[in-house]
């Protein structure tokens, strides 16, 4: 009878087996990297602003280091590997600091961090949007001003706990078959989309955090009443609800909807995949206002991190001209650092006429959720 | 059947092991309670009109998907086991294929091809054949998608039940004056009910928890509201409170299942002598053939074609298609380990539930099902909390990930083993014990070999489910972990379709043989003795 | 029902309980002919055995009579009415025949009472009393609530006979009814069954491979060979 022990035992054995397999891997990655003192040799290619791929990997930044051991830097990334994988690799190549990344959705990574609390193995949390960063702000350490000073004041948190790395503009994506002359056919202000002539022609992704950040922006600039009127107006126009940005842009391209409220860079992926024939373009609202607010993707260093030095170097690297040029040219986001040019495909940040909002204020999602629930955009 | 139910060492052992497993498996539930308690406005959050409507939407989706899954499975199983439809074996394999398609991939491709302005519309429209296409968004789109993805959960056990169903029962009923319809209602249906119930239960819970396909098809369910709390509101407490409501519905479904008529388990005492009289379809043969073929076309071929077009288009336009071959190995490894460990913990639970039928064992069995009805992200986060606090040394190792899969997929293993175990003639085990083998030896020498086909089938099903599981993988995986579903997600959600298509196709390709085995396996052991 | 496709069976008619087969041919896939130009007449109340080696088509013959199998040509008349021909086919549920299967085919989800009462339908008058009297007749009083898997082989056999008799069939067809029983039980039970059937005066066709059993029980014996039948 006692042999029934076998069952839990073998479960345990299997777990151990799986576990053992893992620690092996961990050991490999934990291999200590020892940098020998070398002469200073900073080879920096000035990124050429062409459509061509800027091969950041080839850029080598070597610095003098007194013999130093690096623990691997642990990053929780709410941004997909397809976007930030290459630049993280470039960081390792440049600094010899090994990096271990956990990719996931920003919301889920933030929730994971909250569950882990002080015990988190993460050193850095790299999030899609200010809301994600704001939700774990308590867990972040204050960043040195050498890092935060690199970005404009509006693009980091006032208490210096996290900083924006790249900018992403809110735009109206429109179908080019239905709207041949956006300048005359589209209103110059987000508010005017409540006109009944847009009935059945609008799409939005209300659960998307960038969208909710935009609504927060609307609340800050327009006030609660006007925002509510606007939301109700759009809902009365039978707005189509999409799961997230990508399907909204796809729907605009296919002509399911004529206009959609999304982030600007998704269109460029479609243009790349489907070529110029993809029947949608971005419309940056000329009158500015909260409809064309520029959001940021950013990062912060966890207070619980025992690898803060490497983490700071990562932050610095992300705000270096190299990384910023990568973001601008490869994934069409707005660089936030002075001296790095945006992609030639995008309008200038200054012409966007963005409203005077501090980005960290956009992290206040609770009231926005409440409002979206009240008007029925969210359950 | 039940011997020495009380004061029995075996009972004590089995019950304590099962209780332990049930406790571990109810970690997500305990976590939710613990989180929801700390929520101030719990009542205000839950008892709102909009939550009511969205609940109604979830429930109606669960009902319709379960209903249509059973209808389709019945149609398929009936003709694929009892008629002379051509290419029966091939069709059967094809009909199992949809189970390998991840729902987020299916939703994506479905909208891309069959949306109101999708590719099919565009092509037909460019030939001036049509100028509008049915709007498949919303309830019906979600129903179609989920039905065609999840019907194999019903089809597989139903097919097995139909094969082992003795034709003479139906003949007997008809000779007693009951026509085809009444025979079906009074004899066939009750005899197939256990198989339909266990499959239908998985479909219902799966529908309740699915997020990917439902969101892409623009149908807002309860899970959609939960995901909004995580990804839009960054509010995991509210998410937990909402998930608790989902648990309530899972429990409701589970208890409804128990009260369905025909709950008696039975094994027939004599071996079957199926008279194998196949329904002669004659000239309708090819119509039925095409109708059957339509099911895997919608369920598997459409997504495969969609993925192939993305891939080919990407290659033509010269996209750089990133693919990391080690992801294949990683996926296979974790899926394999998950299948084994899940089956091992399924054994005591299903034994306990079948051998000692009482309220307690029933409760334990039901608890094991709850994880399946929760969005897997909830299960993932609860295990993050649990393992970082109580299993820290192995936190973020493959072990915890496997553990997570086991919690999630336990009901699949339990239902696979249970379906055969209830038919197992206890005389076979008694015979072994009469020959001097002890409980353990009997278990190893008689019971396990007899159950092997269903253990294998269950493991394969879990293997397939693990292969495509995404949210749990993202949350619980070790650092630097890359598997096929994470690669699909990493590219697809950023609209790099060509790079997403390759791992998706490989995932389907690798899962194919496993699903073929599910069908082709010769169940030549008659456990009824 | 105000419209009936098949006429009501009149119990007092002269041809009630008669089974007539005329030039019957049964084949599988139009190739393998099982029964060839087959003729057989069975009178009311007779107990008839059909002998033959296994696989010769005995079961097929029973299935053709009971309507589970269509015939290629010829005529089968039950109670004087045409049941099967090369052109028409009366479904088994309309033939009013009792069938006892080799493996009994007791419904595993129903208990003894429900099994016996299965053919009676819900609307039959005095349903409960009828079922109970059958159960008494087959000597299974007190076992009403048991399920088939809780019964012994002999008990199962009797339930199968009782279930077939409950619908007051014009004839009862038995396919190797005693083959699953051990020797001593076989003898006792077969006599018992014969007695039960005799009491009801029902025409009986029994298929068996056991010559002694056939001779002992039946009024007439036939041998099935090469698709033909002859009296012995």
What does this protein look like?
The complex is a heterotrimer of chains A (379), B (529) and C (232). Chain A contains 13 helices and twelve strands. Chain A is an alpha/beta fold and 379 residues long. In chain A, strand 3, helix 2 and strand 4 (99-103) form a beta-alpha-beta unit. Chain A starts with 5 loop residues before the first helix and ends with a helix. Chain B has 529 residues and is mainly alpha-helical. Chain B has helices at residues 9-25, 27-37, 42-46, 49-82, 88-96, 103-114, 119-126, 139-150, 152-164, 167-175, 180-209, 212-216, 222-231, 236-259, 285-316, 326-355, 359-367, 376-390, 398-421, 426-434, 439-468, 471-476, 484-492, 497-520. The model of chain C has no long low-confidence stretch (mean pLDDT 83). In chain C, helix 3 packs across helix 4 and helix 4 (153-166) runs parallel beside helix 5. Chains A and B meet through helix 1, helix 2, strand 4, helix 3 and helix 4 of A and helix 1, helix 4, helix 6, helix 13 and helix 15 of B.
Core attributes:
heterotrimer, B: 529 residues, 73% helix, disordered N terminus, C: 232 residues, alpha/beta, 6 helices, 28% helix, 27% strand
Could you outline the blueprint of secondary structure elements for this entry?
The complex is a heterotrimer of chains A (379), B (529) and C (232).
Chain A lengths: L5 H25 L10 E2 L18 E2 L10 E5 L3 H15 L3 E5 L2 H11 L7 E4 L2 H6 L9 H4 L13 E14 L6 H4 L16 E3 L4 H14 L1 H13 L3 E2 L3 H10 L4 E5 L2 H9 L5 E4 L10 E8 L6 H11 L2 H10 L3 E2 L29 H11 L4
Parallel strand pairs in A: 3-4, 3-5, 7-8, 7-9
Antiparallel strand pairs in A: 1-2, 5-11, 6-9, 6-10, 6-11, 6-12
Chain B lengths: L8 H17 L1 H11 L4 H5 L2 H34 L5 H9 L6 H12 L4 H8 L12 H12 L1 H13 L2 H9 L4 H30 L2 H5 L5 H10 L4 H24 L25 H32 L9 H30 L3 H9 L8 H15 L7 H24 L4 H9 L4 H30 L2 H6 L7 H9 L4 H24 L9
Helix pairs in contact in B: 1-16, 1-17, 2-14, 2-18, 4-8, 4-9, 4-11, 5-15, 5-24, 6-15, 9-11, 10-11, 11-14, 11-19, 13-14, 15-24, 16-17, 16-19, 16-21, 18-19, 19-21, 20-21, 21-24, 23-24
Chain C lengths: L18 E10 L3 E11 L4 E5 L6 H9 L6 E6 L2 E5 L11 E4 L11 H6 L9 H11 L15 H14 L4 E5 L7 H18 L2 E6 L2 H7 L2 E6 L2 E4 L1
Parallel strand pairs in C: 3-8, 3-9, 6-7, 7-8
Antiparallel strand pairs in C: 1-2, 1-4, 4-5, 9-10
Helix pairs in contact in C: 3-4, 4-5
